[in-house]
Design goal:
binds zinc ion; alpha/beta; single chain; 2 domains; 8-stranded mixed sheet
Length: 494
């Protein structure tokens, strides 16, 4: 049995300024053929899941076609150009055509890619693949932040979506998809899919899978799986893509039982709808949020992790400014993206130098004003570590260039080349920061950081300064939003 593997994904923040050109996709890195399925040193992912199934079967060969990294933007990339999509999908088609006889195709996609002129890129890619490979099974794995609708259900044989955020089950989801593929090719499984759209769009910061409301949803998915559904998936979606299929989607795959699949999909859709208010609540702004954190620390409720969740560019300074202005001590701001300042420090300075630097607030006016700091360089150069936290455990990690400034009173400001969030204390320790001496760690992340940092902190506190990934979606200028989608579609008059 020969199964082709294609991995092409992006989570597109269409409100962000950096267009995803072909050049930036190339710069981000694209692997082809056998090399595209080499996973040594990466930790676990969809492809290691496919491999586990293939190896256990013995007679299944995975045929590597392509694997892209994300385009090399500073923050989240904006609209991808039609050219980038046409050229990369063209390469996929050419290589599939040259791959010899195939029995199936595994598509590792994301589900929130946005492409100019192509309203639904994932089903479009699947249809192009179908044209080349003909009537063989196509199974798709998606990120939990997928925005998909009936078009994807119509274009492929099975859709399998992560159930964890922080994303810790991409390997397991790969296993589920690959097992379904193998059984389907052998004629022992009849993938039968049902799909629903509850009609809700919600911010990523409310989608953590181990907490209400999404835990309630995933528990129900597992109940349906215990009752005979092969795989029940709910993607809460990615609100920061202004696309016609934005929002929550439900995909249920059964073995030939249409009625059961439809019943489960409807039940899950109704459940999500009933939780809509919990999925769309408000959060404190920068000034009041930081004041609340300082008060918590004063009362001994510490350490606190501030999730500066809506900075999708990396250059946002709102929280850093408040930490300084409000006189907080013992904190680390873990990522102000400022490649020009880094370049200057690299050319003129060394560790130990006292420097004055004006950082951040350069990529977009929503990021806030640049902030001037004076401090001693405590790290300047690359950082390397092997990840011990739950996210990508075991992966060999490297940051090419990163700086940390000690600005006194145990306050540390980390300057990065692009949007960056530490997924554990490892990267901070790798640059010499004494993490356990801190009261406050500010991280530009929504939920992924919680996998590790919830084990370290007493409180995880998301704050909603101006940013391109806000909790309050009514602040964004959508043009392609579905009319009836809660809470910001035209129907809801918000
Ligand atoms: Zn995701």
């Amino acid at each position: 049995m020969r199964i082709a593997v294609v991995s092409y994904s992006h989570e597109t923040c269409t409100f962000c300024p950096e267009i995803g050109t072909l050049e930036l996709w190339e710069k981000g890195g694209i692997k082809y053929g056998d090399e595209s399925i080499v996973t040594k040193g990466e930790g676990k992912g969809y492809i290691t899941g496919y491999k586990e199934v293939a190896e256990a079967e013995g007679d299944v060969e995975l045929v590597g076609i392509i694997r892209t990294s994300w385009p090399a933007t500073t923050g989240y990339g904006s609209w991808n150009t039609t050219e980038s999509f046409d050229v990369i999908s063209g390469r996929i088609m050419d290589r599939l055509a040259d791959a010899g006889e195939l029995d199936g195709v595994l598509l590792a996609l994301h589900g929130a890619m946005a492409v100019t002129g192509i309203p639904r890129p994932e089903p479009e890619l699947a249809r192009r693949v179908r044209k080349v490979v003909g009537n063989i099974p196509i199974m798709v794995t998606l990120d939990l932040h997928a925005n998909e609708d009936i078009e994807l259900a119509n274009a492929v044989d099975g859709v399998f979506i992560l159930k964890t955020y922080p994303h810790l089950d991409s390997h397991e989801t790969g296993v589920i998809a690959a097992r379904c593929m193998v059984e389907t090719v052998r004629g022992r499984f009849n993938p039968t899919m049902a799909h629903r759209r509850p009609g809700i769009v919600c911010a990523s910061v409310f989608q953590a899978s181990e907490y209400h409301p999404m835990k309630t949803v995933y528990d129900r998915c597992r109940e349906w799986e215990a009752k005979g559904i092969y795989c029940a998936s709910v993607a809460p979606g990615y609100a920061y893509s202004d696309v016609p299929d934005v929002g929550v989607s439900v995909f249920v795959v059964s073995d030939g039982d249409r009625a059961l699949a439809e019943e489960a999909a409807q039940d899950l859709s109704d459940l999500v709808w009933s939780l809509r208010e919990d999925l769309t609540r408000g959060l404190p702004k920068a000034e009041e949020g930081v004041a609340a954190v300082i008060e918590m620390v004063g009362k001994g409720e510490k350490p606190v992790v501030i999730a500066y969740h809506d900075d999708r560019l990396g250059d946002g300074t709102h929280i850093l400014k408040e930490l300084i202005d409000q006189g907080a001590k013992n904190w680390c701001s873990t990522g102000i993206a400022d490649p020009k300042t880094l370049e200057r420090l690299k050319e003129k300075n060394k560790v130990g130098d006292m420097v004055k630097a004006t950082i951040g607030g350069w990529l977009h006016e929503i990021s806030g004003e640049p902030v001037t700091i004076i401090g001693r360089i405590e790290h300047l150069g690359p950082a390397e570590w092997v990840e011990t936290g739950p996210m990508r455990r075991g992966a060999e990690q490297k940051i090419d260039f990163i700086a940390s400034l000690d600005i006194g009173e145990n306050r540390h400001v980390i300057i990065t080349e692009r949007l960056y969030a530490p997924m554990s204390a490892d990267p901070l320790k790798a640059i010499g920061i004494d993490v356990d001496s801190l009261d406050i760690v500010e991280i530009k992340s929504r939920v992924h950081h919680k996998a590790y940092w919830d084990t370290w902190s007493a409180v995880d506190y998301p704050i909603d300064p101006p940013g391109l990934g806000p909790a309050d979606l009514s602040t964004l200028d959508y043009e392609n939003l579905p009319w009836g989608i809660y809470p910001i579609g035209e129907k809801w008059d918000k």
